[in-house]
Every structure is written in structure tokens, then in C-alpha cells.
Amino acid sequence: MSGGGYSPEEQRKRKLASDCLKRATEAMAKQNWDYAVEMFATAVKMVPDNLMYRQSLRGSERKKYKDNKSGASMAFLKLSGIRSRIKKARGAKNWADLDLAAEEGLAVNPWDAHFNADLGEAARERGFLEIAAFAYEQATSPDGSPDNKDYLTALAEIYELRKNFTAAIAVLDKVMELDPLNGAVRSKIQALGANMTIHKAGYDDAQSTQEVRETKPKQGYEESVKGDVKTNKEVLAPGESVEADLQRMIRKEPANVAHYLKLGDFFRREGKLEEAAKTYKLALDVSGDPNIREQMEDVELDMVRRNVSFAKEASARDPKDEQSRAIVVELATELLSQEIEIFSRRVDRYPNDLRLKHELARRFMRCKKYDKAIPLLQAASKDIRLESQVLASLGSCFLAKKQNNLAKRQFEKALEKLNATDHPIPFKECCYYLARLAEEAKDRATAEKYYSEILASDYEYKDVAKRLGEIQGGDDESNQIDMEHGDET
Q1: Which end of the chain is more exposed for a tag (fewer CB within 10 A), N or C?
Q2: Concatenated DSSP letters of 39-73
């Protein structure tokens, strides 16, 4: 064995998968989804236990079908043979073949709940628990079969195997909503609660308190703590390195989640985001604590934001490079999608946190999902610290939906709490749209008043000077409001 413990053949496969990833990324930047799918599919075949390859493949497949939620046209004509192969592979317990057949089915319809569940089963049997969780999550998503009790139960079992008892209980709670009289599920929820307590204390696999102290780190941890050496021969002494000291503490007390958190925080402060995310993941595996999952998610978002920043810098160096611009758009879209997914979960978890609702609403506004943003903003407006910003955002949402009277009311209420000195951006936005609404209503005096308010603090703001000149010059021309909605407010 060589090259990180891999055989020469395994090294070859991983190198090929890495090359495919590079080509797929380039294809995504050009929106060549057919080629991206081909490359990601090859990467999956070469390294079937890599979660990121699977996730990227599924995303590209969905883009290929323009997010139509149904996949290829006349898909049913292409699937009978695949379903027969799945049945045969399951009967023979040939999990690798079941995996391949499920992926072929998902290439035809990446939203198909049955194929996602088939993949989850194959991945579980092959020991790929992260991929199994991903597959069953897709199978039970709103685009799959969210009320399928068998899929939900299987997902809960995967979470349990990964010691994520909190998530397992949440899934089984949903099963109980669908089947309130299911005593077996109720008993399982109670057992998981007990298991979670035992696991947090570090007693789950120990026969004595001495064994608790001597518990070995979880599988995969050894690779994460090799940083406590200066070279292959010179070990850092205690006190020479914060990182090495924390790694030693983890090896000594692998069930003490506090050590993992301190190391994760250290990596994050040092800007080592990948290492921080891995460490928080280990802490999550040890504890099952959803608070730690949120810390891990925050780091993962920071990683995407950093990539967006790097992509923007690269694009700025060569503004004519269309591929660089496409990469920026792709990464920014991915960041927005992840933020919406994460903030949505947090809003569900913390229903009284109005700041979270405001943040989620701003993301929905960016992707023009105003019907989802409006109720969140209406709830967030109850926080007096956010009220002026939220009212301005509500006005923008109603304006986008061409509900001008409602928009006008929100902008006016926002302006009562804004001024040009303390809130320059939302103040000018509100004045501008109120002036435009007044122009449409042929109310020149009101339009002139609001345009003048803007020019008093920012003479070059948008096209205000030109519009005010036309009003004062008696020009009757009035154009429909054309606004760029964002989160400027």
C-alpha cells in the first residue's frame, strides 16, 4: 500500500475521479450539463464512497433537465429494464450492482423517490452511510415522497447508525404524525432518547468506566489528528502548539466533545476552514448535538463565501473572461441555495427568532420568491430593531408583485423611521420608489418632493436628477417602474 494507504489501482481510480471533477467543474461553468453529468458519473464509479461526487452529480442531472422535477421526457419507457436490474441485484444481494442501477435510474429522473431509496439501501449495505443518508433525504424530500413511512424509517435508521440520535428522533416524530397509533415507532423514539443520553456520556460501547476513559477515537479520526508533529520524527512537546495540545486531549478523552469544539474554533480563527469543518463533524458524530451541526454549517457557508470571493477576484482580473463570470454566478447561486436551506431549518428550530426570519426573507427576495419572503418579513417586523428595514423590504416585495398600494403603504411607514444620515440606503430606496409610484399616479408634486429628498444627500443616485428635471420641465412621459430587487434594504 502507498499514496495515503491506497493500492496502485485505487490511486489510479482516485486520480481519474479527480480529473473528472476538474472537467465537470469546467463544464458546469459553461452550463454544459450533459458533459458535467458524464464526468461526475465517472467520478462516482471510480470513487463510490465520495459524497461530494454524488451530490454534484445529482445537482448537474437536475440542471440538465432544467429543474423540471420529472426528468427525461417519456422517462417510463427507459426505466423498465433498470427496474428489472434493481430487482435482480437486490435478490442476489449484489449491492454494487444495485448502486449502479439506481444511479442509472436517477440519470433518467433524479427526483425519483424509488431510485433514491434504492441507492440509499445499496449505500447502507456497502457501508457508505453518508451517501445512504443523502439518498434517503432525497427520497423523503418535498420533491420525492415526503410521507413514505418506509423511507422515513430507513432514514432514521441511518441517522441512528451514525449516532445522530436527534435527527433520527425528528424523522420518527414525523412517522408518528403519519401513523399516530404505531406503538413500535413510539417505543423506538423513547429508546433513541436513552441511547442519545448514553452516547453523550461516552458509555455506549463501554463495559466499565475504565473503558470509557480508554475509548478509541471514532473511525477516520486518526487522519484528523496527525498535525501534532513538526516532521515525521520530531513530535511537538506540550505547550509548543495549541493545535497539537488539543489533538492530544482528544486522543486522551475521545468522548469529550469540548475538546473537538475548542480545536474546531482554533482552526476557524486561523482561517483553516476545511479542518474546522472536519473537526466540527467529528464533534457532531460524538454528541449528536444540533447546535454543533449549526457550527459546522456556518463554516461550510464560510467556505463557499470564500470561494465566491476568490472567483470574483479572478473575474475582476480579466473582465472579458466569460467562463470566470459564469463560475462566479454558479458559486453565488450555490451559496444562496445553501443559505436558504440552512436558514429554513433554523427558522423551524427557532420560530421566535425574528432576525433569522429576516435573513431568510432577504435570501428569498434575491431569488425573486416574494410570496415566501412576505410572511417572513411580516413576522420580522415585530422586532423594533428591524422594523424600518423590514418595512422597506416589504414595500419592494409588494412592488415586485405589482401591488402598488400595499407597496406605497410599506414605504411610507418605513420612511417614518428612517433618515438620510443613519439609514442612507433604505432611506433613498424608499424615497425613490415612492417618487416612482407618485409619477405613475400623475402626482408630480409628491414625486418632486421625494426626488428632492434624495438629491439633498446624493445627487448622483440612480436617474433621480434626470427624472426631477423632466418633472420640473413639464415632461408628461412616465415609464413603468423598473427596479432591481435585492437586499439593499
Answers
A1: N
A2: HHHHHHHHSTT-HHHHHHHHHHHHHHTTT-SS-ST
Identify the bridge partners of residue 2 per DSSP, sorted by sequence position.
Answer: 6
**Residue written as cell 465566491?**
308
Angstrom distance (rounded) from CA 313 to CA 329 = 13
pLDDT tens sequence across 162-175: 888 888 898 999 99
Using CA atoms, how far apart are residues 323 and 445, in angstroms rounded to an integer?
48
Q: Is 94 helix (H, G, I), strand (E, B) or coil?
A: coil
C-alpha cell at 180: 399516530
pTM assigned to the model: 0.50
User: CA nearest 296: which of 271, 254, 264?
Assistant: 264
Question: 250-255: long-range contacts at Cβ-Cβ below 8 A with a sequence spacing of 24 or more?
Answer: 250/217, 250/221, 250/225, 251/217, 251/225, 253/213, 254/202, 254/215, 254/216, 254/217, 254/218, 254/221, 254/286, 255/201, 255/202, 255/212, 255/215, 255/286
Residue 110 in 3-state DSSP?
coil
Return the closest-CA partner of residue 63 out of 27, 43, 33.
Answer: 33
**Can you list the domains of the chain with their CATH numbers?**
8-205 (1.25.40.10), 236-349 (1.25.40.10), 382-472 (1.25.40.10)
pLDDT digits 0-9 by tens, 267-317: 988 888 889 999 999 988 888 888 888 889 999 899 888 888 888 888 888
How many angstroms separate the CA atoms of 259 and 266, rounded?
11
Buried b (16+ CB within 10 A) or exposed e, 267-296: bbeeebbebbbbbbbbbbbbbbbeebbbbb
d(CA 110, CA 33): 13
Q: What is the pLDDT of residues 356-389, one digit of tens each?
A: 999 999 999 999 999 999 999 999 998 888 888 9
Q: Express each pLDDT in 64-97 by its tens digit.
A: 999 898 888 876 777 888 999 999 999 999 999 9
Cα atoms found within 13 Å of the Cα of residue 81, Cβ hemisphere only? 5
The reported pLDDT for the residue numbered 209 is: 35
Closest-CA residue to 424 (of 328, 488, 369, 467): 488
